[in-house]
Amino acid sequence: MTQQPQPIDATRETPSPADESAEAPQSPQPAGGAPAIAGRSPGRMAWERMKRDRVTLICLGVTVAFILIAICAPLLAKVGGWGPITADSKAINPDTGNYPYGSFGGISAKHLLGVEPGTGYDIFARVVYGLRTSLEVALSAAVISTVVGTVVGLAAGYFGGKLDQILSRIMDIVLAFPQLLFLIALTPVIENALQTNAHGGTNENLRLLVLIINISVFAWAYTARLVRGQVLSLRGREFIEAAKIMGAGRRHILFRQLLPNLWAPILISFALAVPQNIATEASLSFLGVGVVPPNPDWGAMLSTAAEFFINDPAYLFIPGILLLILVLALNLFGDGVRDALDPRANRS
């Protein structure tokens, strides 16, 4: 027996879309009405880790302050009223062997950090200009060594085979050299081959260029070894195989696929190379094969101050303490960057 259709009740209301949405099950909301968690980039997460590390933030502030002082060196020297190689003969006493008048190395309103014994140069002007010289050499050498080391490490790790063996042996040889000893030996040799100025001395810009190149020659191998190890662990990953299947060339894989995944170790290597280069440059100037006198440099100031330490210890302590603060701040900041970029690092 067939079922008869039921008549439509005209008095019954058709549910509205608003009613349907009200009756539909709602998606679960976070507890307490909190907003959904948004994705964060690795750089942002690293910065948030750094902000929780007070030591790293303090070292970052100290580093930025030193960089600003180096950039503003001409302005600061002009405010002080003395240039880095402008002597004040009235500030030294010829009766005491040209030592500064007064105590603490002649510190006064006229000379904020005193004057150099024997020459009468203003120490404040020489300190700020010497900081500029140290940072120029250190940063330039760090950039060159990082770029060269990154390219060599990429090539050795990705291509492998005989190229990897040759480049790895070159890295081993460079790392085995006693860097400071060879820099001391090579700098005078290269200096003798350089064009001399009208006074028979080496041109200052050429000497700085020699320092940058010499330091870079021995520093790139550390970055190359680090990058090579990272590339060896990445070249067999799925995204590299997918790029090969899609027909990507070697240049695309190296610089568009691998290199973006290496920015963290490269940045760490650069951050740790800068303080090492500053110490190396100061050591070379201290030993007499760095910046050409009388151009200002902290290492050269320490070398000269050793002769006057008994009667004028302030001249040794001022550049020595500043060099210690700068290198220590850069090293601790580099360690903080390494910890912030490494998600597996142990943090309190």
Tell me what the structure shows.
Residues 24-40 have a biased composition (Low complexity). InterPro entries: BP-dependent_transpt_permease, MetI-like, MetI-like_sf, OppC_N. It comes from Streptomyces humicola. There is one protein chain. The longest helix has 37 residues, at 123-159. Helix content is 63%, strand content 1%. The chain is elongated. A hairpin with a 5-residue loop joins strand 1 (92-93) and strand 2. The relative contact order is 0.13. The protein is mainly α. The protein has a two-stranded antiparallel ribbon with strand order 1-2. Residues 1-27 have low confidence and may be disordered. It contains 13 helices and two strands; from the N terminus they run ααααββααααααααα. The protein has a single domain (48-341), classed as Orthogonal Bundle (MetI-like fold), CATH 1.10.3720.10. The N and C termini lie far apart (80 Å).
